[in-house]
Design a protein that fits this description.
By secondary structure, this protein is mainly alpha-helical. It contains two helices and no strands.
């Protein structure tokens, strides 16, 4: 791994974007798994809607670049 102090500013921002992209890929994979497992339960049908809303919120946050305070 390269020491961040040894990188030029443009290389540092590129490295950060690459790490952020990898993190977003992991989040998207996690969200896709959660969607694939999403089912309505007879015991707790409201849980389906709560999980669906949470997944939608996470997708919106990722689409907006991870900015906080916006839905």
């Amino acid at each position: 791994m390269t020491d961040p102090a040894s990188l030029a500013p443009s290389e540092l921002s590129t490295a950060r974007r690459r790490r952020q992209g990898a993190a977003n890929d992991e989040k998207l994979l996690d969200l896709s798994r959660r969607v694939a497992m999403l089912t309505v339960s007879r015991r707790d049908p409201e849980a389906f809607f709560a999980e669906r809303s949470e997944i939608a919120h996470e997708l919106r946050r990722l689409a907006m670049g991870g900015r906080h305070g916006q839905s």
